[in-house]
Specification:
This protein is an alpha+beta fold. It has 2 domains: 77 residues, Arc Repressor Mutant, subunit A; 116 residues, Jelly Rolls. It is 31% helix and 22% strand. Bound molecules: zinc ion (ZN).
């Protein structure tokens, strides 16, 4: 992430509008919210888009005809009040400028420091630390460190997968991704990311359902990678 700022470069790969709307509405899971927050921290363009979404959302709420109170149950009313509270936004929605440290501020509540995190070796050149245990729906968030020249198994997706590059870079069938960039993959996409730079690629991967590995290596790694 800090690499993006040092060079004055802005991300080229952005999340879809649907994801920004979901984020603005606070309806994404924690893993996806964290991925979006990491991207937003280095993307003025998406921060501006999010501000527009917030403005439109507020206008829509004001334009709704007032519901007669007697038609609402107490639970409905409480739910409405809850929904109107600004602090109901995901806690990760704070744009923390990247600091001196190599550990992005947004990740510190999850891992402390990257250097001291309990990295597990998944395969030659691939290490992982899990940030969020998988939810009942199968979502997850984890960090991967991929050595230069190393390819992840070719895989498809049972749901949405967001990858945010924090440092280094990777290339897959859809493009090249550097610090700050988001790769969004869904049921339609099968891809094989390769760390293509001279430095290790550090990225966060958030999913909302288990991935399906397709190649032989992928099937062998599936139980270990737990993506
Ligand atoms: Zn963006």
């Amino acid at each position: 992430m800090t690499g993006a700022c040092k060079t004055g470069h802005h991300p080229k790969h952005h999340p879809s509008d649907a994801l920004l709307v979901g984020y603005g509405a606070g309806s994404l899971g924690e893993g996806l919210s964290l991925a979006l927050a990491l991207h937003l921290a280095s993307c003025p363009e998406c921060r501006a888009a999010l501000a527009d979404i917030d403005a439109v959302g507020g206008a829509l709420l004001e334009a709704l005809p007032p519901e007669p109170l007697e038609r609402l149950t107490l639970a409905d009313t409480l739910a409405c009040l809850d929904a109107a509270r600004p602090e109901r936004r995901p806690p990760s929605r704070h744009f923390v400028p990247p600091g001196e440290s190599r550990t992005p501020s947004l990740l510190r509540p999850y891992v402390g420091s990257l250097a001291a995190a309990p990295w597990q070796r998944l395969a030659p050149g691939v290490r992982r630390v899990e940030l969020l245990p998988r939810t009942p729906r199968g979502g997850s968030a984890q960090l991967l460190r991929i050595a230069p020249g190393t390819a992840l198994p070719h895989h498809g997706h049972g749901g949405l997968e967001l990858t945010v590059v924090l440092s280094g870079s990777f290339t897959d069938e859809l493009g090249r991704y550097v610090a700050g960039d988001v790769a969004e993959a869904d049921d339609e996409v099968r891809h094989q990311p390769i760390a293509d730079g001279h430095e290790e690629c550090l990225c966060l991967i958030a999913t909302d359902a288990p991935l399906r590995f397709t190649g032989l290596m992928g099937r062998l790694m599936q139980p270990f990678i737990g993506l």
